[in-house]
Amino acid sequence: MSKLKSNSQDLILRGYWRSSATWRVRIALHYKQIPFTYLPVHLVKDGGEQHSQKELQRNPLAQVPTLELESGEILTQSMAIMDYLEHIHPQPSLYPEQAFDRARCLQLAEMINSGIQPLQNLSLLLKVAEFGQDKLTWGHDYIKKGLEAVEYVAQQSNGGPFLVGHTPTVADFCLIPQLYNARRFKVDLSAMPRLCEVETKCKELEAFQKATPEVQSDAQ
Ligand SMILES: N[C@@H](CCC(=O)N[C@@H](CS)C(=O)NCC(=O)O)C(=O)O
């Protein structure tokens, strides 16, 4: 579904193969089968293309992903982008139907989006290293603490193979990239059986397979 060359009718997703926030949006686009063009922004080369004038106009926070709409308007923030996709293309839904389940899904997604990912983000880790601290230990400790909390909540929400219920939701879209990062930071996931179970189930689905970093055009 994603292509390297831009097609004027498509949404344009700019991101990086290993960016967890870009990865979430890729899963959502594939899950809804929305055609899109994927344009890589290299987060590391030459200090990071996210700091270029062009990318800063798209996202002044110097982050990916960005989603360019047909109108030329740009959206940033993966949670806002997924909410937009849900509105333009309601089925299949990225959220549970019931009010409590929907809130639980957003709770789990935000535990990762706000409570874990920003603490292990590239720019933050560079700052940690600049302060003379070990960025691997830093990342490891915050991811471990965060995912243990997610496991605890997920255990209480055990009503289906996914984090909340019988279909994948944005909570699962946030979880899968965070587990990948956990392994990069050598977090022991054996104490998180529920999260690993959910991961196994997600990996069976085509949308998750197509969104995986290693199969992206900019994978190294
Ligand atoms: N809350 C944002 C997070 C975006 C974000 O942190 N993106 C990372 C990659 S996953 C990034 O661009 N980092 C670049 C940097 O830290 O310099 C979202 O969900 O879109």
Categorize the overall geometry: globular
Q: In the residues, how many domains can be counted?
A: 2
Strand content: 5-15%
Largest beta-sheet details: 5 strands, mixed
CA(first)-CA(last) distance: 20 Å
Compute the CA-based radius of gyration: 17 Å
Low-pLDDT runs:
1-6
Ligands and ions found = glutathione
Spatial strand arrangement across the major sheet: 1-3-2-4-5
**Could you name the CATH topology of the largest domain?**
Glutathione S-transferase Yfyf (Class Pi), Chain A, domain 2
Helix content: 40-55%
Structure description:
There is one protein chain. By secondary structure, this protein is of the alpha/beta class. It has two domains: 2-92, 3-Layer(aba) Sandwich (Glutaredoxin), CATH 3.40.30.10; 99-206, Glutathione S-transferase Yfyf (Class Pi), Chain A, domain 2, CATH 1.20.1050. The chain is 49% helix and 8% strand. It has nine helices and five strands. The protein has helices at 20-32, 53-58, 78-88, 99-113, 122-130, 135-156, 170-184, 193-203, 206-211, and strands spanning 2-3, 11-15, 36-40, 66-68, 74-76. The structure holds glutathione (GSH). Residues 19-21, 43, 48, 50, 62-65, 77-79, 113, 121-123 line the site of glutathione.
Concise account of the structure shown:
This protein has helices at 20-32, 53-58, 78-88, 99-113, 122-130, 135-156, 170-184, 193-203, 206-211, and strands spanning 2-3, 11-15, 36-40, 66-68, 74-76.
